[in-house]
């Protein structure tokens, strides 16, 4: 990817490293993510989440990647809600460790995922949603060629509150 940063599909063995990454970034991610139960921040909790994502990956409805600096997980990016047929679309969500923000890692990961979605999966459209005040994520999306398509009121329950989101899309072909 860039500067020794790697992106790869999640593995069952990633649970401990994911737990460590989420603990390091707990305060940083809290305003941007759903409220998390305490077991989310444990190896057992991350193992359950990873296994569920890998089952969805095997079923073709999700593609979960981790972003690594050597052997340390520093983020994740996931295609979810994959629908083929005439819709041929998916959603993308991502986060990058606070210690690595501003280095272009989110943009590079998104570029990788868009190429994969188009060339390996044949997807036509990718959608993303950001909180209205998440300027950093909006810049990543805009740099990757996403266009703003509107505001979805009370779209996701983030940090314990139903919040409005900006919606973006990228047409791949």
Overall strand count: 7
The H/E string reads EHHHEEEHEHEE
From the alpha carbons, calculate the radius of gyration and give it in angstroms.
Answer: 15 Å
| CA(first)-CA(last) distance | 23 Å
Q: Order of strands across the biggest sheet?
A: 1-2-3-4-5-7-6
Task: Give a quick account of the main beta sheet: strands, pairing sense, barrel closure.
Answer: 7 strands, mixed
How would you describe this structure to a colleague?
It is a single chain. The chain has a seven-stranded mixed beta sheet with strand order 1-2-3-4-5-7-6, with helices on both faces. It is globular and about 40 Å long. The protein contains five helices and seven strands; from the N terminus they run E-H-H-H-E-E-E-H-E-H-E-E. It has helices at 15-24, 26-29, 43-59, 105-119, 135-143, and strands spanning 5-9, 63-69, 72-83, 89-96, 125-131, 147-158, 161-171.
Topology, element by element:
Blueprint (H helix, E strand, L loop, with lengths): L4 E5 L5 H10 L1 H4 L13 H17 L3 E7 L2 E12 L5 E8 L8 H15 L5 E7 L3 H9 L3 E12 L2 E11 L2
Parallel strand pairs: 4-5
Antiparallel strand pairs: 1-2, 2-3, 3-4, 5-7, 6-7
Helix pairs in contact: 1-3
Protein traits:
7-stranded mixed β-sheet, single chain, 5 helices, 173 residues, alpha+beta, 36% strand
């Amino acid at each position: 990817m860039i500067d020794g940063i790697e992106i790869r599909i999640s593995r069952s063995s990633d649970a401990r490293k994911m737990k460590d990454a989420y603990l390091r970034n707990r305060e940083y991610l809290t305003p941007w993510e759903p409220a998390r139960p305490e077991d989310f921040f444990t190896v057992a909790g991350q193992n359950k989440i990873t296994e569920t994502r890998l089952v969805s990956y095997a079923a073709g409805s999700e593609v979960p990647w981790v972003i690594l600096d050597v052997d340390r997980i520093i983020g994740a990016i996931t295609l979810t809600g994959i629908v083929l047929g005439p819709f041929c679309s998916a959603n993308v969500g991502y986060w990058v460790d606070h210690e690595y923000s501003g280095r272009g890692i989110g943009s590079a990961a998104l570029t990788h995922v868009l190429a994969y979605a188009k060339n390996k999966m044949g997807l036509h459209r990718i959608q993303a949603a950001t909180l209205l005040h998440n300027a950093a994520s909006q810049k990543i999306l805009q740099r990757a060629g996403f266009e703003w398509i509107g505001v979805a009121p009370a779209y996701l329950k983030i940090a314990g509150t139903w919040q409005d989101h900006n919606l973006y899309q990228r047409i791949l072909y």
